[in-house]
Amino acid sequence: MDALHLSQELIRVNTCLSGEAVAAALVAHHLEAAGVPSSVIEWRPGRSQLIARHGGDQPVVLTGHLDTVAVDPVSWTADPWGAQISDGWLYGRGSSDMKSGVAALTAAYLSHVTRPHPCRGVQLVLTAAEETGCEGARKLAATMPAEPRAVIVAEPTANRLVLGHKGALWLRLTARGRAAHGSRPDLGDNAILRLTRAVEELLAAGQWPTHPQLGAGTINVGTVHGGQQVNMVPDHAEATLDIRTVPHPATASLAADVAAVVGDQVDVTTLMNLPPVATAADHPATELVRTVLRDAGLPDHPDPGATFFTDAAVLGGPALIIGPGEPDQAHVVDERCRVDHIYAATEIYTTLLDRACVRA
Questions:
Q1: Tens-digit pLDDT profile for the chain (360 aa)?
Q2: Do residue 94 and residue 8 come from a single domain?
Q3: The pTM is what?
Q4: Rounded CA gap, 108 and 349, in Å?
Q5: CB neighbours (10 Å) of residue 16?
Q6: What is the CATH number of the domain that holds 142?
Q7: Looking at the structure, do residues 230 and 323 belong to the same domain, yes or no?
Q8: Which of 222, 240, 274 is where one domain is finished?
Q9: How many domains does the chain have?
Q10: Residue 255 domain boundaries
C-alpha cells in the first residue's frame, strides 16, 4: 500500500466534524483487498470507527482520528479536498492533522500483518470525533487491550517523538441576575458583572499545578455570552473555560476548586475532562522508538509533552506521539504536509512493529 496515495484518498473524503463512515469504509476496503480483516463500528449515523487486530494480546496499538476541524473553502487558495501535491507538499484539510498519519499507520500495519512471522500483537484503531473531545474513542476504550506494550498516536509532530500531553478540563460558568430597564441598573442585578467578577477572581487565584515533564497548567477564557440588548440589565451570562491540566494531585479536584473560588456568584458545570498523559523517558516503549529513530538517522531526543490533547487520554498508554504532519499546520488555512515525512513515518512505524515482535 502506498501511504501517499491513501493520504490523498482520505483527504478527498470530507470528514469535517462528520462523515467518518466513508473514510473508515475506505480503509477497511484496502485491508480487505489484502486479505486483512477489520471491524467498522458505527458510533453515530454516518460516523464510524475502525478496529483491526492481529497477533498476541499485548499489542502495540496504532491510533489516529478520521475527523477534521471545519474549513471555509473561500479562505483557501488550494482545494481543501483536492489533495494536490506541489513542491513536495501535500495540501488539503487533514493533510497534517491527521490523515497522513492515519495513512502511514495503515500502510505499516498492512505491511506487518501480511508478512508471515510470530507476531506478538498489533492493533489499529481509527476513531471518530476526536476533535470534539475524544468522543468516539470513549466508545472504544472498553475494547482496548489491558496491557498494551505501546500506544502510538500519529498526531502531527514532524516525526519527532513526544512523550505525552496535557489534559483538558472545559468548564461553563453561568451567572444569573435580575433584569431591569437599562436606565435603572439599581433595580437589577447585572449577570455580566457577576460573571466578570468571578472570572477575575479565578485568574487572580494563584499558580496552577505544575509537572516536571509537562510544565504548568494553563487557563483560557474561550467564550463569553450575555445580555439581550443595550437598554436592559442582563439577567443571564455565560463563559467557557479551557483549563489544560498536568499530572498532579490537585488536578483531581480542580473543578471543585474553581467552584470554591468563584463562590456563589456563578454556577460551574463540567463540559469535558480529559486526563493528562505522560510516558517516562526511560520507559521501554520510549527507548524502542528512540532506537528506531536513531537507526534511521533521525533526531531521537524526545519532546516531553504537547499542549494539545489526543485520543491517548481515553485509550490509555504508554502513549507515544509521533506523526508525519507538521505541528504548525493543524487547523490552519491551506493545511499541508511534507510528502517525504509521510514515507518516513511509514518506515518508522513498520520498523517499530517489526522490532516489537522480536523476543528478547
A1: 999 999 999 999 999 999 999 999 999 999 999 999 999 999 999 999 999 999 988 899 999 999 999 999 999 999 999 999 999 999 999 999 999 999 999 999 999 999 999 999 999 999 999 999 999 999 999 888 888 999 999 999 999 999 999 999 999 999 999 999 999 999 999 999 999 999 999 998 877 889 999 999 999 999 999 999 999 999 999 999 999 999 988 888 889 999 999 888 899 999 999 999 999 999 999 999 999 999 999 999 999 998 889 999 999 889 999 999 999 999 999 999 999 999 999 999 999 999 999 865
A2: yes
A3: 0.92
A4: 6
A5: 15
A6: 3.40.630.10
A7: no
A8: 274
A9: 2
A10: 167-274
